[in-house]
Amino acid sequence: MKVQDISAFWDPSPKGYRSRTNVPFGRPLRVPAPFDFELDTSEFAVLSGESDPEADNVGEDAQGQA
After folding, report:
1. pLDDT tens string 10-39
2. Which of 2, 11, 39, 50 is the S-S candidate for 19 at Cβ 3.0 to 4.6 Å?
């Protein structure tokens, strides 16, 4: 099943980013410092036939917040 989600990557290193947050469309995405804000994704399109973002329990970030 394809999950429609959004990601924020931060803490860059020579080998890529060390941290990432993923949330399904419809849930707020926390963008860390230096921007430090919450992105409202409630208006993002969810294609018909896809699962309800509130019903999916997708791992929200690499730091263990679920």
Report:
1. 999 999 999 999 999 999 999 988 899 999
2. 11
Structure tokens at 31: 């963008």
CA separation for the pair 51, 36 (Å, rounded): 29
Residue pair 18/61 in contact by the 8 Å Cβ criterion:
no
Token digits for 45? 């399109």
Is the CB of residue 9 less than 8 Å from the CB of residue 19?
A: yes
Q: Are strands 16-24 and 5-13 parallel, antiparallel or unpaired?
A: antiparallel
- pTM value is 0.59
